[in-house]
Design brief:
heterodimer, A: mainly alpha, about 5% strand, globular, B: alpha/beta, Rossmann fold, five-stranded parallel β-sheet, transmembrane helix (chain A), LivM-like (chain A), cell membrane (chain A), ABC_transp_permease (chain A), membrane (chain A)
Chain lengths: ~350, ~400
């Protein structure tokens, strides 16, 4: 009823290969995108700057990681380090006089090259062993950033981002920073949706499902795995640079620590491996649920509903948050994206339940 | 009925006009890390802060203005800190204390642009002491650089001279652990001692390799520079490696809990302190009488008088004193008037809780005084007087680093 499938026939290849075949889906995507573009006029600066902006940037980062983890099946527990490389490279490049647009690309390439070097471990090891190799990357990059004052910015290890402009638009106001981040997230999203339909995307999936079987049918595992790490690290590096310039505007090593890597993995897993909407939902959940819960519990405490000590009060949101993650994954192991998919499928044929696929 | 309401309204208006500046609720944002890295200090520190604000409210506030603490957990994550800051700012908070280096770093510039006061007592950037570069940031107490200078001076005066001696600095491998190194470089040159740094990996649960190297170095003095659980491990491993407790000197982050964790061996270990500990202080006595005894305390009574509890009390004592001075002009409290109040503080010692501090528009460190205390098996006993060590040298390092910040770092 809501999706109005009647009369929608895919009579040629072009129509059948559309990203969103059903008109209702297209309208939904367009509406969400229009709302996202208009967000600076619709929500207060508090919500734009503290909720929507970080959500968009972390969604872009989660999308970069899900390309590697979801599509190519290569686990990466050091993705925050990739973002750190992007963030630090972009700042140093802009300071050296490189225009911001080019610095963004170069920082992505630097992150991609370093990420691919560590990704080379994936050529020999799989699964948990690959997790160890990428963890090593996390700690090595952390160590280098902290111990090389030239990178971290001296005694206090804080680097402020210089004022920049992007395509003649000054990136200093909250709205302009948000739009730049949104443009990047939209670009990654379109890229990701389309890469699934290319030969590269198909070889990634083949590698994920069984790498020697892929080799038998002519997919080069060496090239494909390295390319997976290279592409994903490129996107992650640029996302790191966007995070630095559009959100934090002052970069410290702690912003890219091991716990951030785990958060990114959690975003991808809770959202649903390899799914676009899952990356958005997962990033929103991992990033914003603790904040909402903290404010909710603090509000309840202020009105006298939960009379407990501050220490317990601070840990209560974490307890609920943990229970929510377990609950979601028990309820639907394939993540939030699958829950969305189930709801969509239900309404696709509603009210004719028997017609469900 | 309308006329009644109108009369009542105008009466209220007249009554309101009679008071110079209408009494308000002054809001402080205490957005700290209760769940991640700073848990060793935050609980007691925040308890002290809130108990002191309750005490001031119980005593009638400042000119009728009462103080409210907005307390939130940030989990040491910058993005949660930014959210909590923006929200508390909207609720009207004019002073912030994050007690977290990454969160403070992420908000430094924004707070300056928003004209909100951020206090960074005993943490955060040392160069924020330069009020000309950081107008809204107030370290208030001795920075890590002033602490290191104070400890070195104590070694010099109480260890029989320092020339030709060897100091081992054993620190956590992080920007915080590295912080005293520039001032030690300058002091080593001036005083003619040598030092070597021995980093251990964060979080410091395992430090054996660092300490066996310290043993080979045969230091005359040992400086430990860490925080939380790592500190007790440092003291214990040092003693296992044949270093006498009397040789060990610590940064401010060594408290009663660490002493309990180390045990009787701890006796003789020294640390820097910015505030006195114990309950025999007038302010703490009043808190016990008016806040704790009436059941309005914000946490466990056993914590009252602990080092970190008293540090929290001292931070709010300074902030409330700044609010009092800021209100003297007759204008309501905002970020600007509170900042002006901070810069008027002169010789304030919170009734003996801390050294007298004087904050000026240039010096936001408040002089950088402190003292050394020693663990006698039961409590921290002061072994030196309140004073600032090498103030010119510390100031020079502050200004150099602040100039560096002005250039973008």
């Amino acid at each position: 009823m809501f999706y109005r499938l009647s009369g929608t026939f895919h009579t040629n290849y072009q129509a059948d290969r559309k990203l969103w075949k059903i008109p209702a889906d297209r309208w939904l995507v367009l509406t969400v995108f229009a709302l996202a573009v208009l967000a600076p006029f619709l929500v207060s600066p508090l919500y734009l700057g503290s909720y929507v902006l970080p959500w968009i940037i972390w969604s872009a980062a989660a999308l970069s990681l899900t390309l590697l983890m979801g599509m190519a099946g290569q686990l990466h527990f050091g993705f925050a380090a990739v973002m750190a490389i992007g963030a630090y490279s972009s700042i140093h490049l802009v300071r050296a006089g490189v225009p911001f647009e080019i610095a963004l690309l170069l920082s992505g390439i630097i992150a991609a090259v370093i990420g691919a070097v560590f990704g080379a471990a994936a050529l020999r090891v799989k699964g948990l062993y690959l997790v160890m190799a990428t963890l090593a990357m996390q700690y090595l990059v952390d160590w280098v950033v902290v111990n090389v004052p030239w990178i971290s910015g001296g005694a206090h290890a804080t680097l402020r981002t210089p004022a920049v402009s992007f395509l003649f638009m000054d990136i200093s106001s909250l709205a302009s920073r948000y739009w730049l981040a949104l443009a990047w997230a939209a670009l990654i999203t379109v890229f990701y949706l389309n890469v699934k339909r290319t030969s590269f995307g198909r070889s990634l999936v083949a590698i994920r499902d069984k790498d020697f079987a892929a080799a038998v049918i002519g997919v080069d595992p060496f090239k494909t795995k390295l390319m997976a790490f290279f592409t994903s690290s490129f996107l992650g590096g640029v996302s790191g640079a966007i995070l630095a310039f559009c959100y934090y505007r002052a970069v410290t090593p702690e912003q890219f620590g091991f716990n951030v890597s785990i958060q990114l993995v959690a975003m991808v897993l809770v959202g649903g491996l390899g799914s676009v909407i899952g990356s958005y939902l997962g990033a929103g959940f991992v990033l914003l649920a603790p904040i909402f819960l903290t404010n909710l519990i603090a509000g309840l405490a202020a009105s006298g509903w939960v009379p407990v000590s501050q220490n317990f009060l601070s840990h209560l949101p974490l307890v609920i948050y943990g229970a929510m993650i377990i609950g979601f994954l028990l309820f639907e192991p394939l993540g939030l994206a699958k829950i969305y998919d189930n709801i969509r499928k239900y309404f696709l044929v509603w009210p004719f339940r028997h017609a469900r696929s | 009925m309308t006329w009644m309401r109108r009369t009542a309204l105008s009466a209220a208006l007249v009554a309101g006009l009679a008071v110079q500046a209408p009494a308000e609720e002054v809001k402080f944002g205490l957005l700290q890390d209760f769940t991640a890295v700073y848990t060793f200090v935050t609980g007691q520190y925040n308890q002290g802060q809130r108990d002191y604000l309750t005490l001031i409210n119980e005593e009638g506030g400042i000119d009728g203005n009462t103080f409210t603490a907005i307390v939130r957990d940030t989990g040491n994550q910058p993005q949660r800190g930014i959210e909590a800051y923006n929200r508390a700012k909207e609720e009207g908070a004019i002073l912030f204390d994050f007690l977290s280096t990454p969160v403070s770093a992420a908000i430094l510039d924004q707070a300056g642009a928003d004209a909100r006061v951020v206090i960074t007592p005993a943490h955060g950037r040392g160069d924020a002491s330069d009020g000309t570069v950081f107008p809204y940031i107030f370290p208030m107490f001795a920075t890590y650089w002033a602490q290191a200078a104070n400890l070195v001076e104590f070694m010099k005066t109480n260890g029989g001279g320092i020339e030709g001696k060897k100091i081992a600095i054993v620190h956590i491998d992080s920007p915080f652990g590295r912080e005293p190194l520039p001032i030690l470089d300058a002091l080593a040159e001036q005083e003619g001692f040598e030092y070597q740094s021995f980093p251990y990996a964060s979080p410091g649960n395992e430090q054996s390799s660092a300490w066996s190297e310290v043993r080979r170095y045969r230091p005359d003095f040992v400086l430990i520079w860490g925080a939380g659980g790592g500190q007790a491990v440092s003291v214990r491993t040092a003693i296992q490696n044949g270093i006498a407790p009397e040789q060990i000197h610590s940064v401010i982050w060594l408290a009663e809990t660490d002493a309990a964790n180390v045990g009787p061996q701890m006796k003789g270990v020294k640390r820097f302190e910015a505030t006195a500990s114990g309950t025999e202080l007038p302010i703490i006595q009043r808190i016990q009488e008016k806040v704790i005894a009436t059941g309005k305390g914000s946490g466990e009574e056993a914590n009252v008088g602990n080092s970190y509890y008293n540090l929290g009390v001292a931070t709010m004592a300074v902030a409330v004193e700044a609010a009092r001075l800021g209100l003297e002009g007759g204008e309501p409290l905002t970020g600007e008037t509170l900042k002006a109040g901070f810069e008027k503080i002169a010789g304030y010692d919170a009734e003996g809780l801390m050294p007298p501090i004087t904050i000026t528009a240039e010096d936001h460190q408040g002089g950088g005084a402190g003292r050394i205390s020693e663990w006698d098996g039961e409590a921290w006993v002061p072994v030196s007087d309140w004073h600032a060590a090498y103030p010119e040298l510390v100031r020079k390092v502050i200004e150099e680093s602040a100039a560096h910040y002005g250039e973008g770092n």
